[in-house]
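Re: [ENG-882] Designed sequences occasionally contain unexpected residues at chain ends

Forwarding the minimal case from QA. Structure tokens:
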């Protein structure tokens, strides 16, 4: 994950589902049933074609929900291109040389605009496409709640300040997730997004050669797996070389958790889920019960999808730019956490 964070309050309050003001319409299943009845079918059809063309696009698009929702709510802000007056999220520490497949969202938006002009938001496209990426990779399918608006701006600084590092340990991640009202169970289940996809050598070289500034590798890495990673990611090598996040990188299953139990987690932030006592039991449980993992993963994705900022928004015609071309300026108040990225 690849997948699987906080924050920089602005002049608004970052709202959890129970605190969404009356001015923000509630999210609901079947939101486009009358205005764009084939919306979900269109999204899945484009996703299916994209994943046939490029299998990695499934994992890439799935992670969009994480990177969008954790930065000021699920509002499509991560899709905005930079402008002369706005540094967006695409070049943030967590996204640069990491997130990809933006063109898949462009294709989905184009198809939806043909069928139902300016009806379906880019924020909702991310939610639907993320769900479809999981289902088309052999994972669970579920009903998504829709009705989000697209943000009027994006902030590279916010993304830099909010997203966690691949070096993060489980206790840090627990505290971050808790600020979004996401539980320890949600954290571990959502980390299962790394059941599909790849990670960069950049994210693990410290584990292989200088864990905790010891000049030694992470002792929790299984020896044969470490030898494999040493060959893939030699010291001084290309940090953008990628490796599989688990042993079945194109199949959404519980292999990720089995790998963690066996000391074969790719990222430090993954393996620490097994070595830390508060998260270990969930890892063990999911490694033995795929159905329970699927159920808890879906619950976590729905909870994460409920995050909203309460800010005004729109339905963009093009997911890369706000309508009219000029992002809205927002004044920051104060910085709470900083320098986490994934």
């Amino acid at each position: 994950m690849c997948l699987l964070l906080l924050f920089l309050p602005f002049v608004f309050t970052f709202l959890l589902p129970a605190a969404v003001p009356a001015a923000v319409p509630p999210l609901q299943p079947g939101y486009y049933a009358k205005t764009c009845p084939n919306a979900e079918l269109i999204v899945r059809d484009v996703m299916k074609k994209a994943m046939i063309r490029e299998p990695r696009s499934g994992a890439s698009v799935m992670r969009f929900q994480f990177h969008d929702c954790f930065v000021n709510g699920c509002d499509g802000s991560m899709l905005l291109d930079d402008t002369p007056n706005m540094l967006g999220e695409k070049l943030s520490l967590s996204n640069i040389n990491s997130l990809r497949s933006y063109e898949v969202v462009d294709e989905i938006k184009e198809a939806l605009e043909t069928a139902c002009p300016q009806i379906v938001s880019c924020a909702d496209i991310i939610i639907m496409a993320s769900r479809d990426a999981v289902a088309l990779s052999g994972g669970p399918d579920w009903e998504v709640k829709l009705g989000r608006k697209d943000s009027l701006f994006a902030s590279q600084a916010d993304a830099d300040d909010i997203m966690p590092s691949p070096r993060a340990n489980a206790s840090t991640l627990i505290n971050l997730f808790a600020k979004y009202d996401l539980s320890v169970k949600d954290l571990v289940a959502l980390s299962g997004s790394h059941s599909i996809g790849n990670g960069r050598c950049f994210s693990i070289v410290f584990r292989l050669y200088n864990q905790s500034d010891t000049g030694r590798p992470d002792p929790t890495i299984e020896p044969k797996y470490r030898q494999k990673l040493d060959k893939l990611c030699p010291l001084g090598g290309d940090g953008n070389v990628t490796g599989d996040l688990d042993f079945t990188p194109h199949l959404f299953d519980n292999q990720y958790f089995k790998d963690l139990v066996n000391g074969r987690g790719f990222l430090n932030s993954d393996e620490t889920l097994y070595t830390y006592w508060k998260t270990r039991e969930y890892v063990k449980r999911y490694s033995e019960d795929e159905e329970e993992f699927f159920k808890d993963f879906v619950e976590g994705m729905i909870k994460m999808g409920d995050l909203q900022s309460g800010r005004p928004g729109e339905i963009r015609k093009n997911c890369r730019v706000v309508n009219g071309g000029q992002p809205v300026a927002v004044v920051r108040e104060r910085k709470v956490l900083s320098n986490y990225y994934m």
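QA comment: On inspection the terminal residues look reasonable. Residues 290-305 form the longest helix (16 residues). Proposing we downgrade this to a documentation issue.
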